[in-house]
Amino acid sequence: MGHMAQLEQVFLNILSNALNAMGGSQPRRLSVSAEKDPESVVINVRDTGPGLPDEFFERMFDPFFTTKEAGKGLGLGLSISLSIVKGFGGTIHASNHKDGGALFTVAFPRLVSPGRAEE
Q1: I want to staple 48 with a disulfide (CB 3.0 to 4.6 A). Which of 9, 29, 31, 81 is the partner?
Q2: 76 is in which domain, residue-wise?
């Protein structure tokens, strides 16, 4: 469960960052996948950009932290996204994919109504 506008903000931010990160990379590919298990729903967003610098990991969710040049971003997107996801009981994890590029994983607890059959 989640508020549609807030979830939209989370994923638009992650997707926009991925598109910006790919810049002139070739090929430029952005993939989104989702999976579920009995406890959670997991959404993965992967790009084919250069990946995330090591120093980025410790500060990436801090307010006003950005790697973009001045005037290109406020550095609030990931901080706000983290707050929204945590508010729904979820998590965001960032890593570099083994085949290159960045991978963002967003996980939410799965809610199933009592008495309702699994889809």
Answers
A1: 29
A2: 4-109
DSSP state of 23: T
Collapsed DSSP state (helix, strand, coil) of residue 11: helix
pTM, entire model: 0.84
| Averaged pLDDT, 101-119 | 79
Peptide bond into 27 cis (omega under 30): yes
Q: What are phi and psi of 116, to 5 degrees?
A: -95, 130
Cβ(90)–Cβ(42) under 8 Å? Answer: no
Q: How many residues would you count in the chain? A: 119
Answer whether 77's CB lies under 8 Å from 12's CB: no
In degrees and rounded to multiples of 5, residue 32 shows phi and psi of -130, 130
Q: How is residue 39 annotated by DSSP? A: S
Q: How do residues 61-107 score in pLDDT, each as one tens digit?
A: 888 777 666 656 666 889 999 999 999 999 999 999 999 899 999 99
Residue 23 lies in a domain: yes
Domains in the chain, number: 1
